[in-house]
Amino acid sequence: MCGIAAIFAYGAGAGPVDAAELERVRDAMAKRGPDGAGLWVADDRRIGLGHRRLAIIDLRPEAAQPMAFAPEPGANATLRITFNGEIYNYEALRAELIQKGARFTTQSDTEVILQLYHREGPAMARRLRGMFAFAIWDDAKGSLFLARDPFGIKPLYYADDGKTFRLASSVKALRTSGRIGDAPDPAGHVGYFLMGSVPEPHTLYADIRALPAGSTLTIDRSGAKRLARYFDAPSILAEASDTASDVAAALRDSVRHHLVADVPVGVFLSSGLDSSVVVGLAAETHADLKTFTLGFNEFKGSDKDEVPLADLVAAHYATRHQTRYVTGADFAAGIDDVLDAMDQPTLDGVNVYFVAKAAAEGGLKVALSGLGGDEVFAGYSTFQEIPRLVGAIGAIPGASHWGKGFRVVAAPVARRFASPKHASIFEYGGSYAGAYLLRRGLFLPWEIPEILDPELARRGLSELSILTGLDDAARGQRTAVAKVAALETCFYLRNQLLRDADWAGMAHSLEIRTPFVDSVLFTALAGRIAAGTLTKAEMTRAPKAPLPDALIGRPKTGFSVPVRDWLSAADARERGFRGWAKKVYRAAWTGTSV
User: Fold this and answer.
1) pLDDT in tens, 150-183
2) In whole angstroms, what is the distance from residue 149 CA to residue 126 CA?
3) Catalytic residue IDs
4) Which in 66, 183, 231, 391 has the greatest CB count within 10 A?
């Protein structure tokens, strides 16, 4: 895991690459890569690459980046790369390339990417299994090639002013360039308040965009760009057939690949089924496995307390287990650091921040997480609630037409006695896009002008067109489960959960891996995901040593953090998720302290 940066001065009127600027952007990501720093600027100063290294595979200096590739020994380098992430199938790809005559000088996955690009060009991205974001300078073609992993686990942001193209692993690092404007992206601001996270490709800034998940981008010396998508989860769900699949074998294969490292690997362990299954599968091949759990005094003795069952699972699989208790004092002392690490505003991520801190303090550089299990195995209540709501409201003639009028009348009452969302149940509840917005949304579109500048809100709502985006993800799916799976994967998982895991882990130089979020696993199980025939019960049977009986059949509780209990009494009127969301936004956009 690393931090990457690049500057490509492609335009005729562009100034030469400023090495000091590139170094500044690179070093703004020091926590992403505390093990080393590299910088390369071409002799003509039209292209430069920067890299911060967190050494996980091939720890030797020879594997440092930016890394160069020359087609023959002694020849000039024709390719150079700056790479963030891990390629889990790099050993198999390396063996294949050696059979075809390739010669390697390192044992790194980075060199495999270079060699594969040399032979296959941009099409190579679809052959990579892992989490990644990288940029390759192709000197022969005079082009910069970017790629991002299928689910968007690793971030990649860029800015293009028409002359110079800049990229980095974080928005905040990119802004240290000093060459990027402050104008807001209305869709990014509105999107945050609608969904609790900024939906890609938007950011809070008009000049900064995210490379979409599962996409590549090539930009040449003329400034021409070629954006291509090589992986699309909704399309895979829509086209897959419900064929028999060995779920246990697929899960075991994914966990095995995610354990590949030249440093110790641990696991985040809650009292839930997903992380417990990951621990059970990892323990089959990794002796002396470390596990970490968060505990909160506020939850002791309640069904929200993760500690007792996590202790039970750890003892069951003989892991070296640590529990870290986080208090309101810890939260107060660390909140400025949390917000500083939070690259884009998000409603969540505090729990991951603190468990990552505990894992890093325990000596780990890599930890596996059960994140993504609910999307694959339909674990969220949304898989039942949304189809039920659509069925009920959709059966009422004309509900979507008179629903807005109902909302206008009912909203004042709903605000006094319940959630304002209740007033919009007829307006939005009859479609999957609308029902998903009701269930996952933070605020509803009609509330946004009350929070943001009305003109910014109007533009943002128009540009984002959130219902259209949600409908695009669900359209074409043949079952209710498939529609919800597509929505959860493309929005909640991609824009919030995975992004939170990235910034919260990187705040402590910890690489968080997600075996349930894996392109090979997803493709293998897509037919059954779409058909709704996968169950958590089937997942729990994957480990050879069965899970403890106390976990089986236990109702899903989710993982909670008592943030509202930690906010000061003076902020009581803004307690709850909506109040916290506003505070996070103010800190991100205006720099106002929480």
Assistant:
1) 999 999 999 999 999 999 999 999 999 999 999 9
2) 9
3) 2
4) 66
